[in-house]
Design brief:
The protein is of the alpha+beta class. Helix content is 53%, strand content 11%. The chain has a 5-stranded mixed sheet with strand order 1-5-4-2-3, sandwiched between helices. Helix 3 runs antiparallel to helix 4. The protein starts with a helix and ends with a helix. The N terminus is likely disordered.
Length: 222
């Protein structure tokens, strides 16, 4: 899927201005075209919340385009929905370092400030951020405490998060990014999507579908 810079900017501005994307009724979603089932279904972090997962990599140009749209969209999610972002490595050493970068920034409290900046550095400024040395030099230029970040980058906590990311990729059978999943049951396909924002319209419809399924299951059990 491709999207021109002009169209991307127009879409982004429209989303930010509206504060929300128009919902696509769940009844209009078509399996195979708009979404595919996740088999077997995967449990979320909380059984009381509909968990949306964005699988992504800082190294992926499509993820770079989707990121500001997801950021704006996530601010309007209802209370029964949570968003989890999972950086992926696909077994590549360079992308594994980007996963470590994400989680180390999360641990040092710098992720919100520098999340978009990482995409910008890689895809606009063409900064190399694929080795530990390159990453440490860059984060220090961004005003991050170099020692605290280096400690986090090599920490057991970050290694565990990296392992968890790899595990989720296997369980959800992720073979390309970006990928958005809903409630551990549905993966957005968007075969006929005309732009990145369409993926979030489908995600909204799948959230509605997940909510209806949960209500039906609860009523049957009650």
């Amino acid at each position: 899927m491709s999207l021109s810079r002009r169209r991307f900017n127009q879409t982004l501005l429209a989303v930010l201005a509206a504060g929300a994307l128009p919902a696509l009724p769940a009844a209009e979603l078509v399996e195979g075209r708009d979404w595919k089932p996740i088999k077997p279904p995967q449990p979320g972090e909380s059984e009381h919340k509909i968990e949306v997962i964005e699988f992504f990599s800082y190294g992926c140009p499509h993820c770079r385009h989707l990121h500001p749209l997801v950021t704006a969209w996530s601010k309007g999610l209802p209370e029964d929905v949570t968003l989890a972002r999972v950086p992926v490595s696909f077994g590549r050493a360079a992308w594994a370092n980007l996963v470590r970068l994400y989680y180390a920034l999360e641990l040092t409290g710098d992720l919100e400030r520098l999340d978009e900046a990482v995409f910008e550095a890689l895809h606009t400024q063409r900064t190399q951020l694929y080795t530990k040395e390159q990453i440490l030099a860059w984060v220090e230029r961004q005003g991050v405490d170099a020692k605290a970040f280096a400690d986090a980058f090599d920490s057991f906590a970050v290694q565990m998060r990296l392992n968890r990311s790899d595990q989720l990729v296997r369980k959800y059978r992720v073979d390309a990014v970006p990928l958005i999943t809903v409630d551990g049951r549905y993966a957005v396909v968007g075969q006929e999507s005309k732009g990145y924002a369409d993926l979030l319209v489908i995600a909204d419809g799948l959230i509605e579908q997940a909510r209806a399924r949960r209500a039906t299951t609860s009523a049957a059990e009650g």
